[in-house]
Amino acid sequence: MQTATETEAANPTPPQYGSKPRKPGLYLGLFHGRHEPREQMSDWGFDGPAIGPLKWCHTTYAFDIKIEFESVADAVEYFGVAQNQFDMTVDGDLLIFGGMYYGDWTVYYVPPESCERPVDTFRETSRVNDFIAHRKFLL
To answer: Higher model confidence: residue 74 or residue 15?
Structure first.
């Protein structure tokens, strides 16, 4: 099994945590992001990706994080490798993904009715497709 940092360069813009994903399922949402592990934070940082849909996410001793995607095609979108399972890298108390560092992450389920809405062709103003569990819900 390859580590996530060895294989994650394929998709520079995966879906962001807080945006409604295209598919229902289990997601690992990364947030409170920073560019460097010792970066001085004056705010909460930035939201990272919503990684999924996953079959499972397993953490051992708050350090070893493993995930398995429901579909190899979904894994390729995030990591650029056709495999289902990945080890996520943790540096101190920060999870690393895409060369960025995240102080918080959450595992959450997105039901079909909460997925991204189809593109409107008849509205002048597009609908909001965001929701963030730790802040607010917009359905």
So the answer is: 74
